[in-house]
Amino acid sequence: MITLLVIHLVIGAVAAAVARRLQSKVFWVTMLAPLATLAWVASVASDVYDGSPVIADHEWVAGLGLDLRFVVDEFALLMLGIVSGVGVLVMIYASQYFDDEDGLGRFAALLTVFAGAMTGLVSADSLLLIFVFWELTSITSYGLIGFKDRKSAARNAALQALFITGAGGLALLAGLIMLRISTGSDTLSGLADTTVAGSVASWAAVLILVGCFTKSAQVPFHGWLPGAMSAPTPVSAYLHSATMVKAGIFLVARLSPHLNELAPWRPMTLIFGLATMVWGGYRAIRQTDLKLLLAYGTVSQLGMMMAVFGAGTPKLLFAGTALLAAHAIFKASLFMVVGIIDHSTHTREISELSGLRKAMPVVMVASVVGGASMAGVIGLAGFLAKEAALVGLIDAGLAGFGLATAVFVAASALTGAYTLRFLWGAFTDAEGVETPIHKPVALFVFPAAVLMIPTILYGIADDWATHIVGPAAAALDEKAEVYHLALWPGFNTAFILSMLAVAGGIVLFAVKAPIEAAQAKLARRVDAADIFHGGLRRFLAGAARFVAVVQPGSLPIYLAVILLAVVTIPFFTIVGDVSLPVDRVLAESPLQAVVVALTMVAAALLALSERRFASVLLLGGVGLGSASLFVIQGAPDLALTQLLIETVSIAIYVFVLRHLPSRFKAPVVSGANVLRVLVAGAVGIVVFLLTVTVVADRTAEPVDAQLTALSYPEADGANIVNVTLVDFRGFDTVGEALVLVVAALGVVALVRSNNGSVPRPTDGRRRWRNRPGSKPTLPPLVLGRPSVVLDTILNAVFHIVMVFAIYLHFAGHNSPGGGFIAGLVAGSALVLRVITGRESLRSRLPIPNAYILGVGIVLVTGTALTSLVLGNALLEHHTWTLDIPVLGTAKTTSALPFDTGIFMLVVGVISTLIEALVGEPDAEANDVADRNEVTV
Amino acid sequence: MSIVLAVLVAWLFAVGTYLVLQRALTRIVLGLGLMSHGAILLLVAVGGRAGRPPLVGKGDDGAGIAAPLPQAFALTAIVIGFGMTAFLLALAYKSWVGTSDDEVQDDVEDLLSGLGGSDDGSDDEPWVEFEAEDHPDVSKRAKP
What average pLDDT does range A253-263 have in this prediction? Predict the structure, then answer.
């Protein structure tokens, strides 16, 4: 099965490649794809009809239970026969239909891919696979309808088809998923073993039906199908009569035996199906364009099949299968006839056609046979199928089916009328018109003519037809096996009704003039395409208004919405369930309460502050408060890290903010401010509730005990936090360190990218430097003015700090410390160095930053990968014990090089940041200042 | 856990939110700084009660230590917060250099699209109606 699908794809690709050279002969290449399917169908047919369906099962996403499962039973085989048989003929037809023109490659490729998608669709058993192929047919159909992409009519028609079938596809997906939820089966074949009941299943049925209605052009979703007639005729014959529009019918047929007991199923299929049948027929009898006439006729017939399959009694399933096959054959043939007429005369208008009878007799015979089959004339395929449908409807014994039968007969009369209109319009002479005709070549007529054979055979050899249709229907429902198609059913009710319908059709056609006049008045009022496009226009206008509301372009509003969403959702989860943790205390110690109070004050002052530097210092205050709280909590590593980070952070803040004015610009606007306070309050409250509830609702046992137990014995480290960072959760640390590197490189890139998207400021914009009263807020840090005192102290301290950093690095595994902390200590020594400003950072550091970062990354990832190479887990720990003479025994672990890497990374990151923020901005400022001096 | 710690966490988030909703980029960065302090304290606070530092050598059963795992998480968070602060500050600097302003302005593109300045389908191109008599290009597929 997969092979067949791949063949379609490959041939499609080849066709796209060679179309330029072969031009319209490319369809001989693409014909191979459906031909392969047809050959396959022929090869497995006897097996399948002997009762052993072809099953292909491929595992796809095993964890989700998604398999690629194909089951080709008799019904699928019949569909495959139609898809591939009509496919071959359409390809032959297309090779004659098209002159050499641009875009044929795309067209041929899409048509082939469509054939593949349809092949997959009818043979797929997995529900999700059906959806995938279903969508694929919608998408290829979009491309094929829009083939004449220079014409707005074609583009709009393609878009309309895509919108409607795409929306239906979404409904179908939801329906299939709900069906899976309610039955637990994700295959069609699996549905037989489940009971389908309940409200979920009912809603699933409704959604699936909506999907099928859109695909099979049922009222009120039918508008796209007449529109799709702007596609080239091979597409109309293949997609929009024989195959794609049958997809909805196909799925309804497949599901009907399982779902028809659900409350919405039968009423929906019956009402919408019959409404479609009548409306399509009604519209068809007033069309003057042969192709549109057929299109509305197709709508009508699809409605008929929907109603018949939807009812889903065994007899009607049998009848539906017969209808499906008969319709595909005669409708494809009739569409091809329209294409031939169009091609030979350059018109499809009834009033412009004359003399076709003489010019193309074979075409006329083919049309008459196809048309007679469509109208249900005795002795042809359509008659047998319609007869079976009538018998099924009369015998259904379900509520409302008496009325349904009457509607069916009335609609059949319409079918007779528009069939006559078609044949009359095409092959009688229009008054006073001499149509220029160039005769079609034999090969062009061949596909349309050859389809006469099954139509007639089907009608005459009723036993033979039954042998094909019967088992196919039985594949849907075993009980359908017992029925027969009958050439001569006898004078029963169904036969009389059938003849009544044909007679009614003749009468309707005979009195067409008054009917047409009445229709002309009414028809302008309601048009599905108008409704669709009007709706689309209103929808787009509504979308624009909606965007105006939700997307006002203001960052604070966006953030407020995001934050409110973030707190609202957990709020409704928590609110019913606020509980206090068992081990709660008001405060660990009075000291903790005091520190908390001070930190809160610092934060409050920060919010009110109007000066940049005061704010930064207050933030530092909050950081120090946090560090103190970490000490109280018993987290020395955290406290150390926090303190050091705070130090370096403040330095970084200062490096940047000295370029900005000392005060914040705008005083706070009061109205907006109330909103800000409200949002802030909401966030605060929810965070508080979350914090206490999270602890109280703990369900799993904390892993801390395990970490504690394993730390020393397994990882040879007493400092559990450090061991966690470099060993237990070392991979996290790798990621974290790399994030830091990326951030630092990002800073460098931002600061240096002056010629990029952000325009380099003109001298005029930078005039703030020279404007009296708005000096830069800080005197340049690095530029001149060395402080002798600071410098002297630094000279004394710098090396001590560095040695201390190295000590912390080695001690970290067992005492507070470690790579991060050591790196930060060394980094703050560098910051000190910059602040003294005697010399630039670059001249003091022996190694360029890039090397420090590089070696750090290599060490970190190298250590991680080495253990992997040695066959252990990532970052798995290893211990070495060294006996050094005189000094004694030294023990070290593989965590050491890892931590050294972290150390180097942190140093590298900080020195990179300093270089970016101190070196570059000031160098640039100096540049500008220098230039200004020169010009002034 | 300590309730005052939870109060502080909530307070830091609230004040941080207030600052983030301002227009000055510096204030936004400061607000995010407060929020990350809050988040780190939250990690520590939900770890449980205070205890002795999680340094557990040979022969120690680790009784009474503070939970180590939240500390490890918090440490990672602190460092990443630092990286983020540095990056945001560089952005603020860049904004200052580019516009001599660190105020966040309303996005003009967003405003325009909201006001219907862009394509909202209201152009006058008529949607075709698929009636053959009105549309010769549907009914007559003109072929050379």
Answer: 89
Could you tell me if A265 and A252 are in contact, meaning their C-beta atoms sit under 8 angstroms apart?
Answer: no
DSSP assignment letter at A634: T
Query: For the residues A588-615, what does the mean pLDDT come to?
Result: 91
Q: pLDDT by residue (tens digit) across A736-787?
A: 888 999 999 998 888 876 544 444 444 444 433 333 333 333 334 544 455 6
* B10 contacts chain A (CB < 8 A): yes
Whole-angstrom distance between the N-terminal and C-terminal Cα of chain A? Answer: 82
Contacts of B15 in chain A (CB under 8 A): 603-604, 606-607, 680
* pLDDT tens digits along A905-924: 999 998 888 888 876 455 55
Secondary structure in 3-state letters for A29-77 = HHCHHHHHHHHHHHHHHHHHHCCCCEEEEEEEEHHHCEEEEEEECHHHH
Indicate the range of A255-259, A268-272, A530-534 predicted with least confidence: A530-534
Closest CA to B28 of B99, B91, B98: B91
Across residues A179-187, what is the average pLDDT? 87
Instruction: Report chain B's C-alpha Rg in angstroms.
Output: 29
| B130 closest CB neighbour out of A227, A666, A724 | A227
CA distance A347 to A368: 20
Is there a cis peptide before residue A885, judged by omega within 30 degrees of 0?
Answer: no
Count Cβ–Cβ pairs < 8 Å, chain A vs chain B.
407
pLDDT cut 70: percent of chain A above it: 89
Angle made by CA atoms A316, A320, A322, in degrees to the nearest 5: 120
Q: Report how far residue A918's alpha carbon sits from residue A747's, in angstroms, rounded to the nearest whole number.
A: 12
Chain A residue with Cα closest to B138? A230
Question: Nearest CA to B137 among A289, A434, A526?
Answer: A289
Q: Are strands A879-884 and A888-893 parallel, antiparallel or unpaired?
A: antiparallel
Sorted by where each starts, the structural domains of chain B and their CATH numbers stand as 3-53+65-114 (1.10.287.3510)
Tally DSSP H helices, then E strands, for chain A: 39, 4
Q: Which 3-state string (H, E, C) describes A126-137? A: EHHHHHHHHHHH
Backbone dihedral region of A278: left (phi > 0), alpha (psi from -120 to 50 degrees) or beta?
A: alpha
- A interface mutation test: which of B115, B128, B134, B135 has the most A CBs within 10 A? B128
Rounded to whole angstroms, what are the CA distances from A452 to A28, A90, A134, A259, A333? Answer: 22, 15, 30, 36, 8
Residues of chain B with pLDDT under 70: 101, 107-144
Q: What percent of chain A is predicted at pLDDT more than 90?
A: 26
The string over A393-416, giving b where at least 16 C-beta atoms fall within 10 Å of a residue's C-beta and e elsewhere, is bbebebeebeebbebbbbbbbbbb
pLDDT for A610 equals 84
Chain A CB within 8 Å of residue B137 CB: yes
Q: Cα A703 to the chain's mean position, in Å? A: 39
Q: Which residues of A373-388 are buried (b: 16+ CB within 10 A; e: fewer)?
A: bbbbbbebbbbbbbbb
**Residue A86: alpha-carbon gap to chain centroid:** 32
> Which chain A residues are closer than 8 Å to B24 by Cβ?
664-666
**Tokens matching residue A829:** 């020594």
**Which pTM does this prediction carry?**
0.65
Nearest Cα neighbor of A752 from A921, A918, A911, A910 is: A921
User: What residue segments make up the domains of chain A, in order of their start?
Assistant: 2-510, 552-666+682-700, 713-936
E strand map for A229-274: none
pLDDT at A652 over 80: yes
